[in-house]
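Researcher: Let's do a round of design. I'm pasting the structure tokens now; please hold your answer until I've finished.
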């Protein structure tokens, strides 16, 4: 923190209080009549009605990012808020994948005519055998339905963080444009 900060400069503090001439960036509204110079810099970018009040940035639980865009990045506008603390994926967002299924057959003859909820088994009569069966035959490939796994509940996507106080200079040198 410089001795003469720019008006509207944002700084993190390693201590747990608000220094004189600074306000914490917690989205509070200020009267325009008491901070006209700061209002001339911020306008209603962070809130307020623009007639009697204007807002300070609310950085509680948020990270700051630079405005603009770059290769492979979305455009970020001044004052734009984005992101989420958690997300729930839909089936459409999951990558294509497969499962290997191992099926086991009963070694004794099956005793049911209806295969529903039954194990694979050899037949009780030899209707599906040949006089000279060959070994290692591959069965006809079929799709197997696998039920959904997981709860479908949102999960945290927070980056590692360290909580500090972040303030904005209410007094200071009015920044000149270059």
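Researcher: That's everything. Go ahead.
Model: Designed sequence:
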């Amino acid at each position: 923190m410089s001795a003469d900060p720019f008006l509207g400069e944002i700084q993190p503090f390693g201590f747990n209080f608000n220094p004189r001439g600074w306000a914490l960036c917690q989205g509070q509204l200020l009267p325009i009549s008491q901070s006209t110079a700061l209002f001339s810099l911020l306008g209603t970018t962070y809130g307020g009605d623009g007639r009697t009040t204007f807002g300070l940035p609310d950085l509680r639980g948020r990270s700051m990012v630079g405005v603009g865009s770059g290769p492979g990045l979305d455009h970020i506008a001044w004052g734009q808020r984005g992101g989420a603390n958690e997300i729930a994926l839909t089936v459409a967002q999951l990558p294509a994948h497969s499962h290997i299924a191992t099926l086991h057959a009963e070694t004794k003859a099956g005793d049911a005519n209806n295969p529903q909820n039954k194990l694979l088994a050899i037949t009780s009569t030899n209707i599906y055998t040949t006089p000279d069966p060959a070994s290692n035959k591959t069965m006809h490939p079929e799709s197997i339905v696998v039920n959904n796994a997981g709860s479908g509940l949102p999960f945290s996507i927070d980056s590692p963080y360290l909580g500090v106080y972040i303030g904005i200079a209410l007094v200071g040198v009015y920044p000149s444009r270059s």
